[in-house]
Amino acid sequence: MTLSLFEIAALLLVLSGTFGWINHTLLKLPHTIGLLVMALVSSIALLMLERIFPQLGITGTLQSAIGQIDFNATVMEGMLAFLLFAGALHVDFSYLRSQAWAIGLMASVGVILSTFIVGFGLYFIAPVFGYQIPLIWALVFGSLISPTDPVAVLSLLKSINVPHSLEAKIAGESLFNDGVGVVVFAIMVTIATSGAGAQVTAFQVMELFVVEALGGAVLGLITGWIAYRAMSTMDEHMLEILLSVGIVAATYAIALRLHLSGPIAVVVAGLLVGNRGARMAMSDHTKTSLFSFWELIDEILNSVLFLLIGLEVLVISLDPSFGWLAVATIPLVLAARLCAVSAPILLLSVKQSFSAGAIPVLTWGGLRGGISVALALSLPAVEFKSLLLSCTYAVVLFSIIVQGLTVKRVVNSTVDPTLV
Predict the structure, then answer these.
(1) Which DSSP category does 185 fall into?
(2) What is the pLDDT of residues 3-54, one digit of tens each?
(3) Which residue, among 275, 274, 223, has the nearest Cα to 253 in the 3D structure?
(4) In contact, 87 and 150? CB cutoff 8 Å
(5) What is the CATH number that goes with domain 71-419?
(6) What is the per-residue pLDDT across 294-350, written as a single tens digit (0 to 9) for each?
(7) What is the DSSP track for 330-387?
(8) What global pTM score does this model have?
(9) How far is CA 194 from CA 197, 209, 368, in A?
(10) Range(s) for CATH 1.20.1530.20 in the chain?
């Protein structure tokens, strides 16, 4: 049975609300983690039920509905823009500026370093489990799994207390490194599918990186400034909220059209509107209304996204034979994350002091989420796609469920409570 777009949206919202209520009253897990766990368990139960009682048809109906959703397009060309803007809107730019070097290095050098550590690691450990993966496709996996997911990370920060400087590093890095990660992923896929690595020169790689990343930042500054100036000429909270929605949509759409980094563009615009705009262009009533509106948007889209991550198990082909290799990639990704965090911090610690526990908290708190899944699903139909998708899902589920539920313990055991 084919469902309409409205029926699919209604189904997702009903499931989000129902699972959220059950989690709040019974499981009492953090909201988004609870939704993911319940969706995942429900998906697995439905698949088992379908094998036992194939005549029921319940699983088929849900599979048909979820199968109509292009997860990559839904996340990367729709939800992500509004989620990133909502996250950036609430981040204090003064804290980001004070940690600019650490954030910049982790979001750029850290992502690239992690990409190569994971890529080479997967290339060498895959034969141990009986699989051969070309190095370039191993690097593609490294690029899609290395950026932390700002949606998951910012959701996590709502439930733990960390020092402001450490919170700025976690939030700032997650907001910017996904944009860098998407650019690195595009470069790796271009090289992998070009037929010969020599066809893509180092200059072309650098040009693509600079144009997409810096171009996105410039676009975000321009559109954010336009929104700020427009808001400063009026005091109409409903109109200013509508203007903010339009700016997000326009910024991301223009970035996609010009092949710039949409994530970086909306983050920069969100920081400008949420800081300078909130201080100098909004009345207290407008500020309260606008921030409350975006908190609601963030909560709704977050809920639907984590629900979708769990429900996608119904429609994607995860080969159980890749299980042990997928499990082995979890410590590999964590080791790469440790290196990606440690290198910038140790380099900067010569002239700058860091909170005790910064490295373990940044390492364990670097969650992966919907962006990694979306990028994995966007891979061309090559023979390694199923394997890479299985590895991606293993890391994402471990990251959100295990790391997400235990990071508070890591914070409590490593961070001085007097600094919180």
Answers:
(1) H
(2) 788 888 898 899 999 999 999 999 889 888 999 999 999 888 888 877 777 7
(3) 223
(4) yes
(5) 1.20.1530.20
(6) 999 999 999 999 999 998 888 887 778 888 999 999 999 999 999 999 998 888 887
(7) HHHHHHHHHHHHHHHHHHHTTTS---TTHHHHHHHT----HHHHHHHHTS-S-TTHHH
(8) 0.89
(9) 7, 17, 28
(10) 71-419
